[in-house]
Amino acid sequence: MSFAPTLVKICGLSTPETLEASLAAGADMIGLVHFPKSPRHVDLTLGAALSRQARGRAERVALLVDPDDALVEAVLAALDPDWLQLHGTESPERVAAVKARTGRPVMKALGIATADDLARAARYAGIADRLLFDAKPAPGAVLPGGNGHAFDWSLLAGRGRDHPFMLSGGLTPETVAEALAVTAAQAVDVSSGVEAGPGRKDPDRIAAFVAAAKAAAGADKAAAGADKAAAGAASEPQIARVARRA
Ligand SMILES: O=C(O)c1ccccc1N[C@@H]1O[C@H](COP(=O)(O)O)[C@@H](O)[C@H]1O
Known about the structure:
By secondary structure, this protein is of the alpha/beta class. Helices cover about 35% and strands about 20% of the residues.
């Protein structure tokens, strides 16, 4: 039985060299953050250049946080992204409006800490083209994402077999296989976990992350891992087990 390889997104790229490293490693999607508070922020000029470099070689994702219409239009004109990622407090209605205005697929990021957070994802069903689950930021956090924090993956045990979603939040080359085994996610996304420091992507860690994610593909393998982890989750949260091994 052939397994579909996991789709891998490397997010927060800000230099031609690390973008090239991501493309060479086989990243399926590359993310460009346009959010000035982020250490990975790219302005529209740099974003346009990086987007041109990646055109036709990976899907280009423009990451925005609660953008108004003017900013959406400006990013669209400058970067011409394949996807828009909304990583703020955007409502389902706002997601629908951005889709209608831009004609581009929209990925909606949702912060997850508890099962209640996950239940709220249903509001975006049929509206967002893809859901991205990230760790819920701490109250007062400067960034709504990109914090390098993982959440309890057992909340998503086996969910990827029936519901497509992208998993993110504190993933690393060392932990992505376990995250996939528990959640059966078909796609993963990483920013901090492949950096040598805030905003400084590390080509070796990018390559290691893509290789680990692609090697972990396989529904049966993921299902087996999810069953095992679900059985173990009764004793302790998944993240605690992973943290001890990291
Ligand atoms: O990367 C950022 O700086 C960022 C800023 C604002 C919103 C989202 C951001 N990144 C997204 O968050 C996920 C998880 O990040 P990490 O791997 O835990 O650092 C990342 O994949 C981006 O999609």
